[in-house]
What we know:
Blueprint: H1 2-9, E1 19-21, E2 26-32, E3 49-50, E4 53-57, E5 62-69, H2 71-77, E6 83-88, H3 94-99, H4 102-106, E7 110-118, H5 119-125, H6 129-138, E8 141-146, E9 152-155, E10 163-170, H7 173-176, H8 179-194
Parallel strand pairs: 1-5, 6-7
Antiparallel strand pairs: 2-5, 3-4, 7-10, 8-9, 8-10
Amino acid sequence: xxxxxxxxxxxxxxxxxxxxxxxxxxxxxxxxxxxxxxxxxxxxxxxxxxxxxxxxxxxxxxxxxxxxxxxxxxxxxxxxxxxxxxxxxxxxxxxxxxxxxxxxxxxxxxxxxxxxxxxxxxxxxxxxxxxxxxxxxxxxxxxxxxxxxxxxxxxxxxxxxxxxxxxxxxxxxxxxxxxxxxxxxxxxxxxxxxxxxxxxxx
Length: 202
């Protein structure tokens, strides 16, 4: 469906790959919900209530094996030295995907990183939001809330939100952002946050 969507939009600068981002190159089990709830598909097994009948959980339909790669190895193989804007939406596996981008993060080669925190998805993989924020802080990144206007908000070090997006950037960079640069960034953030229902499909 992702490929179909890309083709329907005539986007020629998009490449769809059947790979998962993880902390190591490996073969992993990817769990799938019914099509109408496919945005919940993930490496974990989250307990998701049926929106139409909250007293019951939506069952997983099947599990498939997928190839997982680190973001570091993916970029090295393709000669990608820096990433201007990385949107990370991996349904609870954020800490693992970030560990796989260790070398890029150490070099501050990711200028802006948008990531999602979803409590149910974190629980499905036995991970916690604090681990994500702590890891990014250890790499010298500051995490910010995103305001309703798409601006960088206050610094955030943990989250108990049911679902929320955040922006991380090298800590010293925030103080150097000019007003014009922030203005040019805001539409991009708003667009990315607004597209939360368009998930990467493995």
